[in-house]
Write a structure and sequence with these properties.
With about 210 residues, the chain is of the alpha/beta class. The protein has helices at about 1-20, 35-55, 75-85, 95-100, 110-125, 125-130, 160-170, 185-200, and strands at about 20-25, 60-65, 95, 135, 140, 145-150, 175-180. The protein has a three-stranded parallel beta sheet with strand order 3-4-7.
């Protein structure tokens, strides 16, 4: 636990040097526990981390528990949202590629995006939901484990497709932070996501 606190406060220190206001954290592995048992351990641990960050002077930096891509990791959408109810400053990092991979491709397309975004709003409210943090990339998965590797948008064997998500976020007027994690084409694919969002946003015109 002390090592975990050390890692996270060090990350907050580096973020503070750069003027960053969000630090992404992982919830942990199941370690042969049930999902509920693992979450019940993560909850007090996260409270201790938040308290340590406050004590170190980093209360202005939001901690963002991330949804994870491997099935044996803690961090499906509901687990991350439950962690974020512990403190108003906690911001979910919703990695839609991870959720696609851990669901073995089920969380894909417009209806899935609507369900996921509605769930974020249901748990956290409209204001917090509208500014969630996100990682996005296409991800290859295996039937037994979930996430295997990140891909580029040009690779079509696996999803998720960014277009439905960008369109639905734009329709809601939400302004989350998206970080593209494509394998080596982060800048190019981030620009694709930006253009998809702008094309769907009311009153927006796509920019180069």
């Amino acid at each position: 636990m002390q090592k975990t606190i050390g890692y996270i406060t060090a990350a907050c220190e580096a973020a503070d040097w750069m003027g960053a206001t969000r630090v992404i954290i992982h919830s942990g592995a199941l370690m042969k526990r049930t999902r509920r048992e693992a979450l019940d351990i993560a909850i007090p641990s996260l409270r201790a981390v938040v308290a340590a960050c406050d004590e170190a002077g980093y209360g202005h930096i939001a901690l963002c528990p991330e949804t994870m891509g491997k099935i044996n990791q803690l961090g499906d959408l509901d687990e991350v949202l439950e962690l974020c109810t512990l403190d108003e400053r906690l911001v979910p990092c919703v990695d839609f590629g991870h959720l696609y991979a851990r669901s073995l491709g089920e969380l894909e397309g417009h209806e899935a995006c609507v369900r996921m975004l509605n769930r974020i709003r249901e748990v956290l409210g409209e204001e917090r939901a509208g500014t969630f943090h996100s990682h996005f990339s296409k991800i290859q998965f295996t039937p037994n484990g979930g996430e295997k590797m990140h891909l580029t948008f040009a690779q079509d064997d696996f999803g998720p497709d960014p277009a439905p998500l960008m369109a639905e976020v734009a329709r809601r007027g939400w302004s989350p932070t998206f970080i593209c994690e494509s394998a080596g084409t982060q800048a190019e694919d981030a620009l694709t996501m930006k253009r998809l969002y702008q094309a769907a946003a009311p009153g927006e015109e796509a920019q180069p």
